User: Fold Aldo/keto reductase from Paraburkholderia fungorum.
Amino acid sequence: MTSDIAGVSLPDGERVPALGQGTWEMGENPARRAAEIDALRCGIELGMTLIDTAEMYGDGATESLLGEALAGLRDQVFLVSKVYPHNASRRGAIAACERSLKRLKTDRLDLYLLHWPGSVSLAETVEAFEALRDAGKIRHWGVSNFDTGDMEELVAMPGGEACATNQILYNVARRGPEFDLLPWMAGRKMPAMAYSPVDHARLPKRSPLDDIADARGVSVFQVALAWVLLRPGVCAIPKAGSVEHVRDNHRALQLRLQADELAALDTYFKPPRSKRALEML
Ligand code: NAP
Assistant:
């Protein structure tokens, strides 16, 4: 993997790129398929080799598209998928993982996440993840949409301390995790994977993001991504459905936000001063 993208360390020291790619809503529209595959492959070429997907996306269609996009490139990528909570039983998670591997045309996932906390006992899910790891079907496992209390419960159970990451909604407009979840994770050397880092393209219509973008001659998306990329121990997985958007996002790595710009963002998008329940998309 040769790239100019800084890495973020997993608890075992393995590095993943701080800027990766999301895939939600890809593979659902045949007319967009070629552009989406080109976008993913362009991102890989640029070093955005951390790629996130899920069995939920397009009911498997997104994993299938990604499998096609990864032809000949699988070994360059740190591949992440997620299991539905209702599939996350001891046997269910193993079967779901096998289905994902088939759609993704690979023999292993680099990271397998529980998509959100569900009603299946977490102990069973951890057992399934550990069995998948022992069998070489996954290399790491983790969770998603877990708030601080959920994380405390997880690490207290047998095997739970092997959790590699928590994928959460985090961006300049959704700063709740800064109050306790991100510090809790940093204390365990566990990186956060920021999903919807440009807020699913729903950032406020007029904010200091626009002022900074106008002054710097960059896009609002680049400013929002540059902000996330400044956070230690956080990687971002923006989804971009075109080569143009992927290149735009990659250029966020060159954007160094200055103290006055960060202060303007803090004034508008205030950091949390008390606990806010973890938001989810
Ligand atoms: P996002 O990455 O914040 O935003 C994606 C949207 O922004 C798309 O509409 C995309 O448009 C647009 N966009 C991205 N870069 C752009 C650019 N440079 N210029 C203009 N538009 C741009 O939102 P997300 O897809 O919700 O989150 C990212 C990934 O995180 C997902 O794809 C998924 O893999 C993961 N995720 C996980 C969870 C979870 O529960 N664990 C939840 C949500 C998301 P185009 O498609 O037209 O490029």
